[in-house]
Specification:
By secondary structure, the chain is of the alpha/beta class. Helix content is 53%, strand content 8%. The strands form 4 sheets. The chain has a 6-stranded mixed beta sheet with strand order 10-9-8-7-4-11. A two-stranded antiparallel sheet has the order 1-2.
């Protein structure tokens, strides 16, 4: 005869079969079933008998409730069993609301990150810092709220049991995960961070700074990584503008030695439809004609241009290096997410063969190789060097020297990683244009395919939702070596995950 029962908090209490009958009777009432208290008492005694047969001297509350469910189903009370299960789940939720969250907050408050797996869950967040702690409070509260009130109970139960893991559950109802940012499109005409509009940048220094701001601003609106898909092509635009600035400055300096009043000549140069360029000679021929028209001999003009071009290249290259150095330092120090985390950032580059694009690639690699202030290897940005035959893969190709430099830097700093455009799973999307070059995020994912519209299989302005993992080792253990059973269970979990992803889309 059973005399005691073990409560959830570990205490022993008197076993009372009437409490079981009362719970069953409430299930009757919840379903408006026409069963009386007598039927509930009879079922309660069956439960008691089952517990005695199991030789359980001290049953737990959970065991008693499991046995009630089992008995209801065996006796044909399927609808009642469902109501009892829902009632039980609601009671569990009610208890969790009162205690589970408090225990979590207690751990966050009083334990150091080195002693708490919970506080080390995100390696990019210092959970011991004040804002990191506040962020963790919010994250854990949101997780439990979403588990109890938002998720389908089936999905929640699978996550809680460990069959699946729903990642980033704290952001479940708030935002998307990662984004592949097109900085060429973003910077054209300027952009807004929500607190005012930033002008279109006019130098490589400003291009670098606004890239960091764009990453930081977007990171505050999302919980995943921010990937720049066209870093070399985008930075090339900044290099072009800086070269114009430095060239005109060198020209002005040289003309001061020859002409008393150079304003008219400079204005005429600035009004031209073409500009000085590292890769286009057309401007310099037009400029030469203007200088000669103002009485400067051809020999002197050619000497001025040679000096200005050499000086402008040197100054632009130096500014580009400093801009890349600043970008790396900023992305390792500037915070987002309530001041608790540096942005999770990625840069994709390697394919731009223009003089300006090559200068940007070379200098971001050199700045990465130099490291941070004391020579530390920077954590961010994660860098992906695109490798393609005909561009940089073999000796003699235009960017082969940059591929060699990338290999050297990667050997020292672990970045860049390498993306092979010609790999079969990437090449199928490449159409010879920058937007069809595969771009990766820091988490090594990329968004490219489009089963609904193959014409939109491009990298820029794409993103992804968060993930759900299936616990395959656990599934294998539960299948006990039966391969057919394993795949049956796997199919069931895949269907469950699909249902979980679609749950918020209806």
């Amino acid at each position: 005869m059973i005399q005691y029962i073990r409560k959830r908090d570990g205490r022993m209490d008197q076993f009372d079969v009437n409490k079981i009958a009362g719970a069953i009777y409430k299930a009757f009432q919840a379903t408006e079933a026409k069963y009386g208290l007598d039927a509930a008492i009879d079922l309660a005694h069956v439960v008691e008998h089952k517990l005695e047969e199991r030789h359980t001297e001290l049953p737990t509350v959970e065991l008693v409730q499991d046995t009630v469910e089992e008995t209801l189903i065996e006796k044909g009370y399927v609808r009642i069993a469902k109501a009892y299960i829902l009632y039980r789940a609601e009671r569990t939720r009610s208890r969790d609301r009162k205690s589970r969250l408090m225990k979590t907050l207690e751990e966050i408050t009083f334990q150091d990150a080195k002693d708490s797996d919970l506080k080390r869950e995100n390696a990019n967040v210092n959970a011991d810092a004040p804002m990191g702690t506040m962020l963790k409070y919010g994250a854990e509260a949101a997780k439990q709220f979403n588990e109890m009130f938002v998720l389908n109970p089936l999905h929640s139960a699978a996550h809680r049991s460990g069959d699946i893991h729903i990642h980033d559950m704290d952001f479940l109802t708030l935002t998307t995960t990662c984004t592949q940012i097109d900085i060429i499109d973003l910077f054209h005409g300027g952009f807004s961070t929500g607190h005012g509009v930033l002008r279109e940048p006019n130098s490589i220094t400003t291009y670098s700074a606004l890239t960091c701001i764009a990453i930081q601003s977007n990171q505050n609106d999302q919980h995943g990584g921010q990937a720049i898909v066209n870093f070399d092509y985008g930075m090339a635009e900044g290099v072009k503008k800086s070269y114009v600035k430095w060239y005109l400055k060198a020209i002005k300096g040289a003309l001061k030695l020859l002409i008393d009043n150079q304003d008219e000549l400079i204005q005429e140069l600035q009004s031209l439809s073409v500009q000085p360029s590292l890769s286009d000679e057309s401007y310099f021929e037009v400029e030469k004609d203007i200088f000669c028209k103002h009485g400067i001999t051809l020999d002197v003009v050619e000497r001025i241009q040679k000096y200005a071009r050499e000086q402008a290249y040197q100054d632009t290259n130096q500014e580009t290096y400093q801009a890349m150095e600043a970008l790396i330092h900023n992305l390792n120090t500037m915070n987002s997410r309530a001041g608790a985390q540096v942005p999770f950032s990625s840069l994709n580059y390697g394919m731009d063969t223009s003089v300006e694009g090559r200068m940007a690639i070379r200098n971001v690699l050199l700045a990465t190789e130099a490291g941070l202030g004391h020579g530390e290897t920077p954590i961010f940005p994660i860098q992906i060097f695109r490798v393609k035959e005909g561009i940089n893969y073999q000796k003699g190709e235009p960017n082969y020297d940059l591929f060699q430099l990338a290999c050297r830097v990667s050997a020292k700093r672990l970045f860049p990683n390498f993306s092979f455009v010609d790999a079969s799973f990437n090449k199928q999307y490449y159409k010879g244009t920058p937007e069809t070059e595969i771009a990766y995020m820091g988490c090594r994912t990329r968004v490219m395919g489009n089963v609904y519209d193959p014409t939109r299989e491009i990298s820029p302005r794409r993103g992804n939702l968060s993930f759900t993992s299936i616990n395959l080792p656990r599934l294998a253990i539960k299948s006990k070596g039966d391969i057919d059973e394993f795949f049956i269970k796997l199919d069931q979990l895949i269907d469950l995950c699909i249902d979980q992803f679609c749950y918020f889309c209806v």
